[in-house]
Sequence to fold (898 residues):
Amino acid sequence: MLQITDVKKNFGPVEVLRGVSFGLDAGECVALVGDNGAGKSTLMKIITGVYTASSGEVTLADRSITGTAPGEIRELGIEMIYQSLELASQQDVTANIFLGREPTRKIMGFQTGVIDFKSARAQAEEMIEQLGARLPSVDIQVGNLSGGQQQSVAIARALTFSPKVVIMDEPTAALAVREIQHVLDLIKELKSRGIAVILISHRLTDVFEVADRIVALRQGVVIADERTEDTTMQDVVAHIVGAH
Amino acid sequence: MTTANSASAGASTKKTVVIRNKGALRIESLIVLALLVVVMSFASPFFFTLPNIFNVILATSTIGILALGATFVIGSAGIDLSVGSLLAFAGVVGAFSVAALGLPWWVAIFAALAAGTFAGWINGLVITYGHVPAFVVTLGMMGVARGVALLITDGQAIYGLPEPLIWLGQGRPFGIPVPAIVFLVMAVVLHLLLSYTRFGRHTLIIGDNERGARAMGVPVRSLRIKIYMLSGLMAGLAGLLTTARVNAGDPTAGMTFELSAITAAIIGGTNLFGGRATILGTVIGALIMGVLQNGLNLLAIPSFWQEISIGVVLVAAVWLDQFAKRQKE
Amino acid sequence: MRNFKNTAALAALFVAGATAVSAQDDGLLYGAILKTPANPHWNAMTQGIEDAAASADGVEVVVSTVANEGAAEQQLNNCETMLLREPDALIVGAINSNILLPCLQRASEQGIDIVDLDYNLDREIAEGAGVDVTFTAGNDGHDTGAVGAEFVAEQLGENPSGPVLVIEGLPGNPVGASRGEGFRQRLAEIAPDLEVTTLNGDWDRGKSANIANDILQRNPNLQAVFAANDTMALGATEALLAAGRDDIVVVGVDGSSDAIESIRSGRMTATVAQFPYLVGHRAVELLNQINMEGAELDSYQSTGQSVITQEALEEGTDEMIQYLR
Fold:
């Protein structure tokens, strides 16, 4: 489904990624682990098109998406849920779910930039209901919601347009225990629907519960790529800190 | 998940008409305007008459049109300090094209609007591709545009425009001054643009969270450039109308108008740090300033008081807003 | 200490250099410290000064200007720099009554003549600060206002009554205030039944248009408008015409080119022309008389003003018209 081949990235003289390769299949969850500064978020930003790789290639279903703009990459079916959520706090839930993809209306047969508020609102409600998220209303400003509720909005935004790949950056880091299980259940459900998931997490218990494979990144290279059942938590920790 | 998957059922049955962006309209400013109107009506018998109401809108139109552009700019967490100078620059370009170059009157209209839009485009390009803060770029443009206006005219106002152009500033179809009509029409158009289109929605979103907007595929750069072009276009329009109104392209026109435009937008509830703005609020903000000026003129009160009262209203409006917010929390 | 020595040496060098320059020719050097050339009034004044200097033998003028009407500090810097040139006289169009006093006081100590243009220096304040003004060239604002009042009264016929609007400049500006005051005083003497309202147009065209509109709401029987300069008078003129009122007498002050055009085409009624070109020209001529012939002059030198109407322009009989710029 998604294949990363020998991706390198340097910011000036600093080489952050030094040739990273791995892939994932439909319905597979790959956990990406590594210490701070290992290059995880840079790699993700290259996949989502926010950064461009210095060299190497990213393909989605055998089609190269290297150097494609973030909006187009979303259109192709890659969504990312950022740790910082990247919501617009003064906009309502509906506006955030459709951020960048507002449905528009045809007026007298012409496609316009006029937002179709009715259909957006209805779809947003449907999505929130499907997720079982606890929100007072889709008309509420996102800034007035709790952290968990805001994350539901970010998740709803990633899932509304039937993605093929979903990247989650530390989705459980800021959540209460009950909410964590909810997210892990969601990842399992995505897998069962054939969606590929990249999970970036420091919480190895979460990783071992949902991931099929674990890719460890250290100093810009992949130092381990193993099936979850073939490894142990101690091994993974060793990969991360480099004590092997 | 008992009480809660509530966004659905209940909400969709209520309210058929939804006012877009209603949360952003600051009700305090409307109250202040209403109070002012009542006070002025008692203070002067000439205030609450139809001709004087048109008169207030006419006097508000210049700052008001600039403030419409400022609403988009500030809503996107930008700032445009060049609009006062662009007003003079565009007005001079318009007057110059007819008075000195002898071009037909309608060319002057395009020339003035194009001059403002072009300068806005330069602002946008330098801000987005040059990575220079908007404050600095538009501060620079403020000086450049004023200087070029003075250069074109050699410091002298270009006096004397053809009749059709003068009509743009002085005509009164059905007793309503043309600049007032233009202001109100532009307010409606830009209200629709801000509250009902992707362009307007994205304007507020990049003002709220630019990084997030970029990650979600909003074309932030081209959007910003368009926003500064819109601001420049409004400055061009305001310049055209003032020039027509006083029958002269005056290179010294519009000094400090950029601050008045920003003031109107802020009184009207635009978040100075971006993300929240309404055109209706800005129109109310501009009218508050216009009513104050008109009323104090009618009462022949010296202009120190206009400055003082506008300053007080500005701070009071934002203070009320913060106060209301803290009450909510 | 060492630093101080260096600075002193540098200053000495500067002075030496400056002396060397003026020692080269034995002529007269006048330093003109003016306002912004963006203002047509000062532009014309500068031309007058330069033309007068060019037509006299052995007279050199160095002109310094500032960026805008409010650049008071910049003007003080210009004045200080000018003193380094050791001029024989300073021709000063001060931005306000106070800012140049420290510099002018040193000039007085060095025996440099000081010419005040357009009554921008308050004599009382200046003398209190030890500044000796040789003479003032230009027209007293009170006289200008009075001339305006006489013209307005004459236009309105026998025993006029009704409202009259006076538009002054920026609040606190003495030129606008004295013109307004002179107008009101004279009008009260010759046409006591006119009721005068005064507002500040801040020297701004658009603002004055708004004021004219607003006052027309309050006083539909408005008789006349007197504005402290042409820019404001023109703003009021256009606003009144837009309201369909071509019957109201509008008088400005200055004689700027756009005002003349407006008067010629029958829009604005008249202007009390100040002939800034003549003010500059006269200032230099009078300085030459003092320095070359040792003349003793009155300390107020009126340069003349004249009411310019459409009629006057068409007939061209007023010989002052040639000095319009």
